[in-house]
């Protein structure tokens, strides 16, 4: 039940060019970006921020960044972003066992202690009120350096924006994202919810 309709991908040529980034990450340009282009300055700024946040400059892999995004989106309840994050994690090489057991990252042997520290950070940082504590910080520093922690928080913050945008907008979810969500998250009750393509 979209609040605002997405515009045609050809509406703004600069956005269209920048949005080629998403053909790699998702296999399609997301409707969230097509909606943002009602104000092209927002769509272009968002894509550039997304590219900067998802760049790999340390040991935080592309797959782990997308799993961080999934935990953040799960904490806030955004079904649209949950589906996108798990699809991108799949496309960026997350292990099959991790994709199948993302809900159990704290206990499942497919996740390392370093990954658990990162995902716990994502969960704590995504809550309102914020739940990042000294214990979370101490665990992060056992495995990660300051630059890598900045990368992680960049992902969490980017998805904080996306969670608010897409859940408020009721962004219509794309078929490819639905396919990945049903494959990996459906057994835990994932459904389209307000993102089914109908209007408010």
Could you characterize what this model shows?
It is built from eleven helices and no strands. The chain is mainly alpha-helical and 200 residues long. The chain has one domain (17-193): AhpD-like (Up-down Bundle). It has helices at 13-18, 20-25, 31-36, 40-54, 62-76, 79-91, 96-100, 113-125, 134-143, 146-169, 175-184. Helices cover 62% and strands 0% of the residues. This is Carboxymuconolactone decarboxylase family protein. Residues 40-120 form the Carboxymuconolactone decarboxylase-like domain.
Topology of helices and strands:
Elements: H1 13-18, H2 20-25, H3 31-36, H4 40-54, H5 62-76, H6 79-91, H7 96-100, H8 113-125, H9 134-143, H10 146-169, H11 175-184
Overall CATH architecture: Up-down Bundle
How far apart are the termini?
5 Å
User: Taking all residues together, what is the mean pLDDT?
Assistant: 95
User: Rg to the nearest angstrom?
Assistant: 16 Å
Number of helices: 11
Descriptors:
200 residues, mainly alpha, AhpD-like, 11 helices, peroxiredoxin activity, Carboxymuconolactone decarboxylase family protein
């Amino acid at each position: 039940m979209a609040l605002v309709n997405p515009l045609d991908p050809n509406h703004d040529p600069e956005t269209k060019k920048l949005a080629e980034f998403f053909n790699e990450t998702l296999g399609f340009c997301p409707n969230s970006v097509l909606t943002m282009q009602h104000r092209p300055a927002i769509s272009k700024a968002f894509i550039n921020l997304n590219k900067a946040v998802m760049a790999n400059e340390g040991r935080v892999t592309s797959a782990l960044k997308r799993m961080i995004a999934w935990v953040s989106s799960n904490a806030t309840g955004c079904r649209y972003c949950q589906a996108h994050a798990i699809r991108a994690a799949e496309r960026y090489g997350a292990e099959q066992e991790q994709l199948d057991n993302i809900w159990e990252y704290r206990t499942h042997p497919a996740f390392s202690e370093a990954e658990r520290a990162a995902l716990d950070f994502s969960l704590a940082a995504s809550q309102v009120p914020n739940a990042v504590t000294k214990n979370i910080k101490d665990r992060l520093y056992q495995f990660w350096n300051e630059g890598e922690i900045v990368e992680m928080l960049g992902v969490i913050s980017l998805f904080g924006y996306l969670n608010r945008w897409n859940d408020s907008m009721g962004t219509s979810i794309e078929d490819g994202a639905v396919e990945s969500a049903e494959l990996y998250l459906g057994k835990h009750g994932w459904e389209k919810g307000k993102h089914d393509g109908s209007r408010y």
